Amino acid sequence: MLETLTQYETEIWQAIAETFVMVGVSILAAVIIGLPVGTLLFLCRKGNLLENQFVFSIVNLLVNIIRSFPFLLLVVFLIPFTRLMIGTAIGTAAATVPLSIIAIAHYSRLVEQSLLDVPKGVIEAAISMGASVKDVVFKFIYVEARSGLVLGLTTSIISFISYSTIMGVVGGGGIGDFAIRYGYQQFKTDLMMYVIIIMIILVQLIQFIGTSIARIIDKR
Amino acid sequence: MLKLNRVTKNYAEFQAVKSVSLKINQGEIYGIIGASGAGKSTLLRIMNLLEVPDEGEVEVNGQTLTSMSGKQLRQARKSIGMIFQHFNLVANKTVYENVVVALELADFPKNERRNRVLECLQFVGLESMMDKYPAQLSGGQKQRVAIARALATNPQVLLCDEPTSALDPGTTADILGVLENINKSLGVTIVVVSHEMEVIKSICHTVTIMSDGEIYDTVSCKPKGMQRKENHPQYFVEELTKDVELDHA
User: Fold this and answer.
1) Phi and psi (nearest 5°) for A135?
2) Which residue of A51, A118, A127, A128 is the best one to mutate when testing the B interface, meaning the one whose CB has the most B CBs within 10 A?
């Protein structure tokens, strides 16, 4: 076992690094854009603070459309947009574009669901104390929903890892692409198995960390 | 000090509050009682515009809430405290954090916040629980925290929406004692909505009876005062014997 692994050590580290870049950028996009988008969905919903049927319908539709694309098709479909953003549609940097788009759609939906679990009474109490919408969101809703937000992000990160494995189609590289090219296409089944094991360990680790954090910060 | 002028609230085809007018005087404890669906909670929630009336005016402390901008309304709400049947504390905040947030919202001077929170927690007898989370408290303690939170900004009036309906008789008496104390020692006007006659009888100076979204009658009464009920099992036996024949099993 060790021989095969040491033989491809450089390539494996290289692939892991690419995966980390792709997943890392996706996480950033999810938190920086997906969190506000999910919050907007929540706030614009009927009966909520910023109730706005028009905004809700549009954002909701957009999120649904992105999520209903088979991911491989989304990657191909977004090639012109990627080229516009990055200057090229090939490579790890280019791969982060479609990944970020799906990450935003994916996480915003989970954010919306977590926020819906916040008791209406808590929001009412905040309003009765004279809280502005911003205060209600940051001092009450996010505080109350924080473990759900962490669990949602954990689920999302694991999906991003899965999505990132097909980025080989646009030369994004990564651990999944490595397993296909070296393991599958060069008939090194053992190498493919090792990569799968690495990924299983990675996912277990992320899930463990996510669940632990969520449990520690949940005082409900 | 608090006036409703012909307020009406509709939900779809249902009229929850029908052109109600009332006046609450400074320093009194004002009770609103009625059956479920009589519109009493809606009426209370109209008093700080948690429910915006379809028609009519709401005036508190001489300010007309119904004609305010959003910002003015938020400012006005800081002098109208409110507590709820289910307490509505933030479960992920400690007792201290739950109270201090009211001060943050009111832009209370930073270096005086801690003292103010302690003062309020002392008032409700919970200063030792400061670092606990709501899940670690009993129902009565949670309501005390909610009261401390509502009092933190020195409100002129305290709105209480079924404040004891989730509590047992002994704890109910405790909480009513706290409310009475707030009224007497701090001079806060209190409005209590409840479906429990006992609650209304024991502390209210004026009682409005609501039925079908309208005021059926308003009477002034002399509160009979709090009977200190212990949470002793014998209390439940005595209460039972008042109304039913008991046969010890």
Assistant:
1) -65, -45
2) A128
Chain A residues with CB under 8 Å of B153 CB are: 129
Cβ atoms of residues B152 and B109 within 8 Å = no
Answer yes or no: is B63 within a domain. Answer: yes
* CA B50 to mean position of chain CA atoms: 14
Give me the amino acid identity at A7. Q
| Residues spanned by the domain of B209 | 1-73+187-249
pLDDT tens-digit profile of A94-141?
999 999 999 999 999 999 999 999 999 999 999 999 999 999 999 999
A-chain residue closest to B45, CA distance: A128
Range of the domain at A162: 2-217
Tell me the two tokens of residue B219: 């009477």
Which residues, at least 6 apart from A24, have a Cβ–Cβ distance to it below 8 Å? Answer: none
Average pLDDT over chain B reads 91
User: Are the beta carbons of B33 and B208 closer than 8 angstroms?
Assistant: yes
Number of domains, chain B: 1
Which has the closest alpha carbon to B46: B55, B33, B36?
B55
Closest listed residue to residue B175, CA positions, set B156, B198, B153: B198
- Do B89 and A143 lie within an 8 Å CB cutoff? no
Q: Which residue of A has its CA nearest to B86?
A: A121
How does B212-230 read in b/e, with b if 16+ C-beta sit within 10 Å?
Answer: ebebeeeeeeebeebeebe
Q: CA–CA separation, B41 vs B80, rounded Å?
A: 16
Answer yes or no: is B241 within a domain: yes
Give residue-wise pLDDT tens across range A174-220. 999 999 998 888 888 888 999 999 999 999 999 999 999 999 999 99
Neighbours of B194 (CB within 10 A): 25
Q: Does the model's ipTM exceed the 0.95 cut?
A: no
Q: Does B249 fall in a domain?
A: yes
Q: Which two tokens stand for residue B50?
A: 């948690």
pLDDT band at B34 (very low <50, low <70, confident <90, very high): very high
What's the angle, vertex CA B3, arms to CA B1 and CA B6, rounded to 5?
A: 175
Number of domains within chain A: 1
- What's the CATH code of the domain at A98? 1.10.3720.10
Interface mutation vs chain A, best among B51, B79, B88, most A CBs within 10 Å: B88
